[in-house]
Specification:
The protein is α+β, with helices and mostly antiparallel strands. The chain has four helices and seven strands. Strand 5 and strand 6 form a beta hairpin. This is Large ribosomal subunit protein bL9. InterPro entries: Ribosomal_bL9, Ribosomal_bL9/RNase_H1_N, Ribosomal_bL9_bac/chp, Ribosomal_bL9_C, Ribosomal_bL9_C_sf, Ribosomal_bL9_N, Ribosomal_bL9_N_sf. Keywords: Ribonucleoprotein, Ribosomal protein, RNA-binding, rRNA-binding.
């Protein structure tokens, strides 16, 4: 059975790769869990365009990652959230929220998977989060969480 991987599967491949697996494994495990989709020419073309778009916005090399790190560390990111009178949030801040706040603050586009939050952010105030830009380069972003 020929499939296109939608997510990384250990021992099989990375997203966008076309793999040949046994019918039962594909039909009973990969497809129902959303790890793969059936292969067609149209799906293959769609995956190719997604790969091109991902490569265009991906960070190329260590030098580029260092430039992005400097941009992020100089950026002041403010995130407005709903909070109670004591400054406790209704929920917590997610990496997707932080990525959107970075973009809104005029920063570069950052993948939410690259953002690491040390401990859950559940209060207003100043916090620091880490963004892994390259295997050797990580940036620390200052985040101010404000109540709305």
């Amino acid at each position: 059975m020929k499939l296109i991987l939608a997510q990384e599967v250990e021992g099989l491949g990375a997203p966008g790769e076309i793999v040949e697996v046994k019918d039962g494994y594909g039909r009973n495990y990969l497809v129902p869990r959303g790890l793969a989709i059936g292969w067609t020419r149209g799906a293959e073309k769609q995956i190719q365009s997604i790969k091109r778009a991902r490569d265009a916005r991906a960070i190329q090399g260590k030098e580029h990652a260092s430039e992005v790190k400097n941009q992020l560390e100089q950026l002041g990111v403010t995130l407005n959230v709903k909070a109670g009178e004591t400054g406790r949030l209704f929920g917590s801040v997610t990496p997707a929220d932080i990525a959107a706040a970075i973009k809104a603050a005029g920063g570069p586009l950052v993948e939410k998977r690259a953002i690491t939050i040390g401990s859950p952010i559940k209060t207003t105030g100043k916090h620091q989060v880490s963004v892994q830009l390259h295997s050797d380069v990580a940036a620390t972003v200052r985040l101010e969480v404000q109540a709305v």
